[in-house]
Amino acid sequence: KAVEMAAKNRFPRNVTCKTAHGLAYAVYGSQYKHKQAGNLRLTDIARTINTQDWELAKDIVSTLNAFMASKDLELQEDHFVRFQSNRTLTSVQQQYMRKALNLTRDVWDKMVDIKDRSVSMTHDGYLKLYQMSQPDLSQRFGAILLDEGQDVNPVIANLVQIQKITQVTVGDRHQQLYRFRGAVDALNSPAMRDAEKHFLTQSFRFGPAVAYVANVILSFKGEKIPLQGLGQPTLVKRALPVDLPHRTYLHRTVSGVIENALRLVNQDHRMQWIGGIDSYSLRDLEDLFYFSRHMNDQVQQRKLLTDYADYDQYVVIAKATQDPEMLRSIKIIENYPDLPKRIEQLRAASVTSELDATVTLTTAHRAKGLEWDFVGLYDDFSADPLSPDIDAGKRDDELNLLYVAVTRAMKILSVNSLVIDIMQRFKDMKQRSKP
User: Fold this and answer.
1) Which of 38, 149, 354, 382 has the most crowded CB, counting CB atoms within 10 A?
2) pTM of the model
3) Same domain, 392 and 293
């Protein structure tokens, strides 16, 4: 959404700037206002299918998410994520998969039923409905430009490819960040095989120093074409100067955003949260804190009380399913015994406009497409992309995220310990290669 707003300020009035979800909402999403939710909850799915088998519930959620992200018009075996890497299945596995697929179809039917409130309609759900309707945009537009083409779900790529109007796709394969959600590189899809290609290897956002850091990171992906920084000279430092009028911190995780905000709130900062402070689940976190302290009368989202018998069950389910959001919430609650007071301070210090902020906070994922004068990388990028134990796909994902993060800065970039380590390893590698 932030990128959409930035684009509206740059394109002329005859250009309509929309997210794919924005197009879909006007047609389908608005019909589900009464039952919308950000994502599918394991507890809702378990209740809908009447089970306490959390592995089954997790498989149904992942299968439905895979279907909604795909270009396919029907839910099928290919969407069953758990066995996607299996060449052959045992009879027991086949039986389990058929059961899970049938239950997933039931859940989908309940989701799209406007009158059935047992399963909420997600944003990806109404986008899927829109794509399944195979809309014709030629009545409204003469051309369609797909930005971030390296990082779109097949469902969005299909929405563009079926149009009978001029299509332009823009992207950078090194900025693919959402492969874990099923995103694909539309730039290299079969539909683009005969497309006219133009390469842009120059950036006027930053100068040579930031370009050097970016090229070091990309070198570990085997990139041979260097990125040129043709903007104003950019400084690369270990820390941002203390007297800046505004600074932006980029984080690997949402918990990192919250952790840093809790650190900054006592320094009289006015903080802008990209996407809005409410999109960082602080209310849910506060409710969970009260739940963990047996203060159920303080819980506003009463659904939490019906979903879990007690906080101990919440912890058990989090560990059983390895749900990252649940595990992240548990960690924050353990680290901050005065969490409600701290959250109150965060809300008081929050502003909606960067014009009023002294600090902007966001994740590196949300920062894609945006830029700021002074950018610092927070030290929660814990996964070492150069570890010999990491698989190639995960390595590229983490390197891409670092590349996106460092290229957001226009004047000063403050690198974290991971980037410093990568730069040192690059230097050592160059030294060893000398004759």
Assistant:
1) 149
2) 0.72
3) yes
